[in-house]
Amino acid sequence: MSADHRYAARRDVTTMIPVVDALTGVVVGRVGNLCATGIQVVRGSAASAESLQQGALYQWTFALPAEIGGGQVECGVEVMWNGHDAGRGGDLVGARFILIDPATMERIAHWCAAAKPVTA
């Protein structure tokens, strides 16, 4: 992957939190990391990153990590990139939030700002 040029602090999620397509009920992967403006989804080897098309819009649900109070999130996202990282467990998908509750966005931003930044 290229150099990191993100503007929002992001934080790895170490617990297994599934990301579900709200329209189909299909698990699309698990949360890899979060920032106030987006999400990285790690997909297992059985799922193809190409099945989530760059530029496509999706409606996803996932739980917030317990460290920030948990709770279910339903959000609209746009897939920005697809990639592969064997160290993270398979294919990766990066998506930006296009519709998310502002209070949830603020909770994520505070949680991310309180940690060491993710460097990869």
Quick overview of this protein structure:
Helices cover 10% and strands 44% of the residues. It has one helix at residues 102-113; strands spanning 10-12, 18-21, 27-35, 38-43, 57-63, 72-85, 90-99.
Mean pLDDT comes to: 86
What ranges have pLDDT less than 50 throughout 5 or more consecutive residues? none
Structural class, by secondary structure, is mainly beta
Order of strands, widest sheet: 2-3-4-7-6-5
List keywords for this structure.
globular; 120 residues; mainly beta; 10% helix; six-stranded antiparallel barrel
Describe this structure in words.
With 120 residues, this protein is mostly beta strands. It contains one helix and seven strands. The chain has one helix spanning 102-113; strands spanning 10-12, 18-21, 27-35, 38-43, 57-63, 72-85, 90-99. The chain has a six-stranded antiparallel barrel with strand order 2-3-4-7-6-5. The radius of gyration is 13 Å and the shape is globular. The model has no long low-confidence stretch (mean pLDDT 86).
